[in-house]
Amino acid sequence: MPDETLPETPPETLPETTENDVTEVTEPESTVEALESVERSDSAAAKAAEHVLATVEPTVGVSKPDTILVADGVQRRFGGMTAVDVDHLEVQRGVITALIGPNGAGKTTFFNLLTGFDKPNQGSWSFEGKSLAGISAAKVARNGMVRTFQLTKALSRLTVLQNMQLAAMDNPGENLFASLVKPLWSGTEKRNAEKALEILSRFKLDAKKDDFAGSLSGGQRKLLEMARALMTDPTMIMLDEPMAGVNPALVQSLLGHIQALRDDGMTVLFVEHDMHAVRHISDWVVVMAEGRIVAEGPPAAVMQDQAVVDAYLGAHHDTDLGDDSLLDPAVLARLEAEEEKR
Ligand SMILES: Nc1ncnc2c1ncn2[C@@H]1O[C@H](COP(=O)(O)OP(=O)(O)O)[C@@H](O)[C@H]1O
Ligand SMILES: [Mg+2]
């Protein structure tokens, strides 16, 4: 063992758990069925979002009444290929914006640029009126804009609670493990632990606080990723494919949690392949194809737009939206793998 404080059982040998808290309720047969029973929130925040966005013209680059994030001329090239080429995009504060587009459209790269995990070849953007171009990821997060992260191998060896505490640390130093197991916590650490438990209980993960993060099911991992992001009290949260690998039983609750973030006053920008999810929870939809924004508008309008259908649905354009075939093949493969394990 390289480190005495590491748990003695490697997470890899632990069995995948099932989503106990949800499977007891009537379990949907498929992701599509699960999504069909998701209701649009009728919260005050949802209504306010709909009301204010109804005044915005659905055209690419349009100004928003209360912009929290604005990107200008952001380009990222890999070799001869331009992965991201966003002319102008404004994100409205306090609403759920979905970023959709085919595989390879540049969505993840765009997220990475905005959150300081990658550097553009050119362009500028600002968050809450403050320029963030060239700012480190940690500093971007401190400014209130966070993106969720997949559970890495290292993080899966920590417990759920340790993951949360780590997320709250500004500069997790070399004494990471020592600080996490230290019996006498400082005031800040104690407050962080309390906050972690409160967030975990919201996500029904409190009973798993001492389990290895690596032992969680696909859906629970996604919840933990969201929970970790909340440790920094973000103003805006960015979720990249929050439903990938999540079994149908947890889809509804996950979408409910995303809507709750908006209802709590946060701005949400999420990438999602599943059109049902996008239709059900987003207040505004932005479509990306080949690095560019090709359309934006309210969900119903955007999804009827022929240019969007061509760009996003491609060869499947006449496929019924209720069909699983619209799911990204990689996502579908993960869903099936998840299904097999159960
Ligand atoms: N680090 C990288 N090096 C080279 N090419 C990359 C890199 N990251 C992404 N790309 C390419 O950029 C394009 C956009 O990728 P990505 O942002 O992951 O798309 P999306 O998230 O929309 O599926 C793809 O063609 C991808 O292969
Ligand atoms: Mg991606």
UniProtKB/TrEMBL annotation:
How is this protein annotated for GO cellular component? plasma membrane
Enumerate the PANTHER family for this protein: CONSERVED COMPONENT OF ABC TRANSPORTER FOR NATURAL AMINO ACIDS, CONSERVED COMPONENT OF ABC TRANSPORTER FOR NATURAL AMINO ACIDS-RELATED
Q: Which UniProt keywords apply?
A: ATP-binding, Nucleotide-binding, Transport
GO molecular function ontology, one term from the record? ATP binding
Write out the biased-composition intervals (Acidic residues). Answer: 18-27
Domain (ABC transporter) spans 69-315
Q: Which InterPro entries match?
A: AAA+_ATPase, ABC_AA/LPS_Transport, ABC_transporter-like_ATP-bd, ABC_transporter-like_CS, BCA_ABC_TP_C, P-loop_NTPase
Q: Does the keyword Hydrolase apply?
A: no
Region (Disordered): which ranges? 1-31
Q: Under which name does UniProt file this protein?
A: Branched-chain amino acid transport system ATP-binding protein
| A Pfam family this chain is assigned to | BCA_ABC_TP_C
In which domain of life is the source organism classified?
A: Bacteria
